[in-house]
Amino acid sequence: MLRTVLLLLLAHTASPGPASVAIRRDEALKKLLEVFGMEDPPAPPTHSKQPPQYMVDLFNSVANADGVTKNPDILEGNTVRSFLEKTHSEEMRFLFVLSSVAKNEKILTAELHLFRLWPRVKDITDGPKRQHFCQVSVYQVLEKDKPDTPGGKKLLAARLVSLQTSGWEVFTITPAVRDWTEDESSNQGLLVTVQSREGAPLDPPPLQFASGRGHHESKKPMLVLFTDDGRRGASLPTAGFPGGSHTPGTTPSPGRSRSTRSLGRLRPCQRHPLSVDFEEIGWSGWIISPRGYNAFHCKGSCPFPLGENMRPTNHATVQSIINALKLSEGVSSPCCVPDKLFSINLLYFDDDENVVLKQYDDMVAGSCGCH
């Protein structure tokens, strides 16, 4: 039987009818979307689509198979957005549509990823000097129809690139993207030029990059944004995935019996499994990874006296003593709650079929204690 967050939200409704169940499910899904910072779930891609390998590799570096953060120091901010070049230009002009970037997102770093093709041998060996390097420059286009006029473009990045290999080249273009997100109409795209080491024009250029037309999607120009939307979790301690197959404070799911519920109240405060399955929720069409995760939940008693294994706060210890000695009316025993939380990461398609990696705080109970 699936144990999901939705069941927790539906549990208190006694013997509901079909209509009531549907309404409660819709309310629960809406609440869960709010947790993920969305109003509506993105529509799945219209056709089978592979995410950029860079985004898949980034997800695997940051998170384990369940999406739980294992290396919190990799991401700058809590969101990474990727945009493929969709104008299919044959020239070295690139335009990216950034309408899915939220107004409250702070642009931290923007990178242009271009796949460098193998140079033609003739272009390398022709001429009095054999070319080993050329200078690649990336400009922000200011005048769409006159980029080569004074004031028609602004230099963003330039460096020497080897002509002896192929592969990805990454250029930082943060100022341009900040301009575009502040004023969408200023987005006239990017211009890339190839020159000799001395800055002389090369015609035809010995180095070429894969364009949006005539090349496999895995090599298309891509814009990658590292942003932060300002969302933060609670002030509880957070940590990366602890690793290993067993975590202190975790118990296996007990078999069903008539006494399971009463035993749960008598057992000391511990962490128990709580499965969240995105396929059963109906979100597997737009979530790439993970397919689901274990959120865990805390359950059990906090009896007097509280031992160190129950990880009590000083306040909980005092409350336990007051409760046990009946020194004050209406003071209950401490509660079994999460005292450490882990973040999770989602890799998904947004409404424009761009791939997004987003990190969410406080999504997994790392350990439980009496508070």
Give a short summary of the structure.
By secondary structure, the chain is of the alpha+beta class. It has helices at residues 5-10, 18-35, 53-62, 121-125, 174-182, 260-266, 278-281, 314-325, and strands spanning 79-84, 93-94, 106-116, 133-141, 153-162, 167-172, 190-195, 222-228, 238-239, 270-272, 275-277, 287-289, 292-294, 297-299, 336-349, 355-370. Mean pLDDT is 81; it is low at 9-13 and 242-264.
For the record, the CATH architecture of the largest domain stands as Sandwich
Runs in which pLDDT lies below 50 for 5 or more consecutive residues are: 9-13, 242-264
* CATH domain fold name of the largest domain: Jelly Rolls
**How many E strands?**
16
How many angstroms separate the termini?
A: 30 Å
Count of helix runs = 8
- By secondary-structure content and strand pairing, the structural class works out as alpha+beta
CATH class of the largest domain, please?
Mainly Beta
Helix content: 10-25%
Q: Which percent band covers the strand fraction?
A: 25-35%
Run of helices and strands: HHHEEEHEEEHEEEHEEHEEEHEE
Q: What's the domain count?
A: 2
Please state the average pLDDT score: 81
**Rounded to an integer, what's the Rg over CA atoms?**
27 Å
- Overall form: elongated
The largest β sheet comes out as:
8 strands, mixed
